[in-house]
Structure formats: structure tokens, C-alpha cells
Amino acid sequence: MAAPFGKIEYLYVGTSDFERDLAYYTNVLGAKVIWNRHAFGAKVASLRLCKGPQYLLADHRPAPSCLPLFEVPDLKATSKQLRSRGWKSEGRSFEIPPGPCILFKDPSGNELALFENVRPNVMGEGFED
């Protein structure tokens, strides 16, 4: 059976002190800042900590938290297919710059999200308030 989702594109991590935590990741852990934006009333920095997903440090996410964002080719079709197997979303959809997301929890309460990358180049482009 093929994997149901594409890759984990982002780890969306909450912070209680954006500047302090950004300094920790860059100065102590040696993370590379891909971009650092203040847009739509939120501070978010994309960090490269490893060869895997981008690490998004976000002041609008609760701390501590880590939300994996799985990319899917068609969010509506994937949701429909998962619902046919008993999956339930949290009923909360949200947007990140690349596209729409649906939040859900596993039976133990871990938060996960699916997203469709409808704007694949937006994270490299400048976006401002």
C-alpha cells in the first residue's frame, strides 16, 4: 500500500518568546534562517535544522507544540477518502501562505494537519502585512 500523504513539508512549532527562541535555534543549535517574516499579524521564521522538513517557528502557535504539516495533492479528495474510512477532522481549517490546511487529531490527541500546496512559490516571495 502506498503512503497516504506526500512528505512532511513543515513542522509548525509554537513559541512563547519569538526573539529568544529564534536566537536559541540560530546561535545555539546553528540553524540556518531560510526566511523570517512578520505578516498577517504573526511572526514566523523558517529554519533549516536538518535535511527533512522546514521548521516553522511561529508566535501564533501555542508553546509547547509541534504540528506536522503533510502535503497532499488534493485536499478535498484526500479528506473525502479519509472520511470514508472513519477519519474525522477537527472541523478547523486554516490557511498558511502555500495553501489551505485541515487540522485533525489521532486517537491519542496528537495534532496533525494536511495541506494542499496551491501556491508553491509563495514562501520564497516577499509577503508583508
Whole-number total of structural domains: 1
Radius of gyration: 15 Å
CATH superfamily annotation: 2,3-Dihydroxybiphenyl 1,2-Dioxygenase, domain 1
If strands are numbered along the chain, what order do they take across the biggest sheet?
A: 2-3-4-1-5-8-7-6
Tell me the number of helical segments per DSSP (H or I, 4 or more residues long).
2
Describe the main β-sheet briefly.
8 strands, mixed
Assign an overall shape.
globular
| CATH class type | Alpha Beta
Q: Kindly state the mean pLDDT as a whole number? A: 90
Order of helices and strands: EHEEEEHEEE
Written overview of the protein:
The protein is an alpha+beta fold and 129 residues long. The chain has one domain: 2,3-Dihydroxybiphenyl 1,2-Dioxygenase, domain 1 (Roll), CATH 3.10.180.10. It has two helices and eight strands. It has helices spanning 18-28, 75-83; strands at 8-14, 32-39, 42-48, 54-58, 66-71, 93-96, 99-105, 111-115. Strands 2-3-4-1-5-8-7-6 form an eight-stranded mixed beta sheet, with helices on one face. It is globular. The mean pLDDT is 90.
